[in-house]
Automatic annotation (TrEMBL):
Subcellular location: Membrane
Keyword terms, alphabetized: GTP-binding, Hydrolase, Membrane, Nucleotide-binding
Gene3D superfamilies, alphabetized: P-loop containing nucleotide triphosphate hydrolases
Principal location listed in the UniProt entry: membrane
UniProt keyword Nucleotide-binding, yes or no: yes
Any GO MF annotation of the entry: GTP binding
Domain Dynamin N-terminal: residue ranges: 52-193
GO process terms (BP): mitochondrial fusion
The name this protein goes by in its record: Dynamin N-terminal domain-containing protein
Protein's UniProt keywords contain Acyltransferase: no
Superkingdom, natural source: Bacteria
Record's GO cellular component terms: membrane
Amino acid sequence: MSPAAHTGEAPPGLLQQARALLIRTMTFYRDDPRTASWLRERLERIDEPLRIAVTGRVKSGKSTLINALVGADLAPSDAEERTQVNTVYQYGPEPRITAYTPHGAAQNVPVSTLDPGTIRDLQRWRPDEVARLVIDSPSPGLQAITLIETPGVSSSAVKETGRSALAQILTEADAVLYLTRHPHQTDIQFLQSAHELQVARRAPINTILALSRADETGSGSSDAMPAADKVARQYRDEPRVRSFAQYVLPVAGLLGQAAATLSAQDVDVLAELARLPAEERENLLLSADRFVNSTTPETIPAATRQDLLRRLGRFGVEHATTLIAGGSGDLKKLRSALLADSRLNDLQEAVHQQFVERQEALRARSVLMAVDMVLRANPRSGAQQLRGEFERLLANAHEWDELRLLSALHSGQVRLPGREQEAAERLLGAFGSQRRTRLGLGTDTSEAELADRAGEALVRWRLLATDPMQDSVHREAARTVLRSCERLIAG
């Protein structure tokens, strides 16, 4: 019987157990300074903000989405892929830039403010000169998360350093936001290769696949977002994608970023376009060249048209004018509508639900992956006990099962009928991990009432888990909820 059972206390959670195993592994390898130091870094990261790698195809909009997630214009964006250096955006009380060489030497770059142009120039250094940039920013959006921007997976920097080096960076992050305009075979193969370790296969819970620049899907016209939704559904239901990601979301990052910076003067220009007859406006926006070189209406100069295209894209200009023509000419209303239609809100909610709210499960995943990597790379006599404890934690990591099912329920990969969906999400901890919250009861509920409600839930989900009328997917989902009910009773 465990000490927790003697004292009546709840047993330690998965992250606590993983931390304890990491410390024991670090002690076991204390005569190997390099390994012990590497493990110590992983131990220190447990108490730091969650690390999210933002990676993907070349020119997939990584910088745009980083700025959207942070809520500040930090990451520079260019018409061409320029990022050659892994760039870490983290919280700091004062603006600061530190450049690290491949040999680990650090050099502070004197700055008083964080200008995207300065960061852009540093990101263009070759990987053999600068291995990593660390950007400290006082932006509140970085207090809970640290973002790691990588070069595009097909960029010259990755070709020089190797895809294995990029995959290594992804294993060092707690979570991954992967961006691509349209999933290619190389994207899927790369993400599968990053999930080859035993822990990653057991817990495919740390990746969100975003179909970025969704406004360019198809012809990039008004039906672009519905077309992107269709593509996202197709890939979300593909078994290979489900093996490493629960969320597949379309997002128009440029449109969302433009919504945040739209001015009253911009609205005036867009309103002039909106006053044109619908057919004339549609013909005007058939191509970027036609729009820029047109003299209709004459009051809008070519430079202004070019600026609108750069900031909103052709889809954004067309969509904004349609919204204004429909009555959304107020700046606040137009910003809100553009932001909603960009799906940035959906992505931010997915990041919050999948990553931030369940960060203990993700941190435990990172810790156990570090232990697994060391035990595989440096096997030695006497490590069998560590390996046995690792395997036990891996087999009993119910927190990962909960997170995987929650993600599947939120994304629509798994659908439960009627009230069962809401009940399952609550019992799985979607609205809070406290016992009373999971059972839908108030803070003044007695232990007897808690036990009764937990018992009722247990009986209900046990029946669903063994119902022969349900398919295997729903029975497996019910078994996961059933185990959560068993833990609520044990607690």
